[in-house]
Design goal:
Number of domains: 1
Low-confidence stretches: 1-8
Number of strands: 10
Shape: globular
Structural class: alpha+beta
Distance between the termini: 63 Å
Order of helices and strands: HEEEEEEEHHHEEEH
Mean pLDDT: 87
Helix content: 10-25%
Length: 164
C-alpha cells in the first residue's frame, strides 16, 4: 500500500499568468505567478449597517485568513484573524478555537472595532483598524488594494461606506 507523504500533500497548482477575477457579491481573486492567490470572498450582510468579507491569501500549502468588517454607517473597517500563515490543519484548529467563535459571533451580533477591542477573550487574534473604506485598502502580504465600499454599496447603498 502506498501512502502520500507531506511533499505530495502540499503541491500547489501553477498559475499560467497573474490575473484579477471579479466575482459576485463584491468578491475578487488575484492570481499570482507561479503559485498562490489572494482575494475577498463574497460579502455578507450582517445587518445593523455592518457587512463582512473574508480576506484570504495562500496556496495549497498555507493560508492566511481574516474577517474584514465594515461599518457602513461611518465607512470604517477593521479586520481580525489569526497571526501569520497557517497550514490547512492549523486553519481547521483556528476555526475550532477563538477565531472561529469570533467569526460566528460577529455574524450573530455585529459590532465595531471598539467593542471587539474591549472584548476580554480575543486571545491571540490579530485585530487591526483599517480606516476609511472610501479609499482602496491594502490587505495581505503582496500589497493588493481592495474596494471595501463595494459591500456597503451592495447591502447599504445610501450609506457613508457606500460613498454616498
Amino acid at each position: 500500500m502506498l501512502v502520500a507523504g507531506p511533499a505530495l500533500a502540499c503541491s500547489p497548482a501553477l498559475n499560467a499568468e497573474s490575473a484579477t477575477v471579479l466575482g459576485e457579491g463584491c468578491s475578487v481573486r488575484h492570481l499570482r505567478t507561479p503559485v498562490g492567490a489572494e482575494g475577498l470572498m463574497p460579502a455578507e450582510n450582517l445587518w445593523l449597517g455592518y457587512v463582512v468579507q473574508v480576506h484570504y491569501e495562500g496556496d495549497a500549502c498555507y493560508v492566511r485568513e481574516s474577517q474584514v468588517v465594515v461599518d457602513c454607517a461611518d465607512g470604517s473597517a477593521f479586520l481580525f484573524g489569526p497571526h501569520g500563515a497557517m497550514t490547512v490543519e492549523e486553519h481547521m484548529a483556528a476555526m475550532d478555537g477563538t477565531y472561529g467563535k469570533m467569526a460566528t459571533m460577529i455574524r450573530k451580533m455585529p459590532w465595531g472595532y471598539a467593542e471587539m477591542a474591549a472584548w476580554d477573550d480575543i486571545g491571540d487574534l490579530r485585530l487591526e483598524q483599517l480606516g476609511s473604506v472610501l479609499e482602496p485598502v491594502v490587505l495581505g502580504g503582496a500589497g493588493q488594494s481592495y474596494d471595501l465600499s463595494c459591500a456597503c454599496g451592495l447591502f447599504n447603498p445610501g450609506s457613508v461606506g457606500a460613498g454616498k
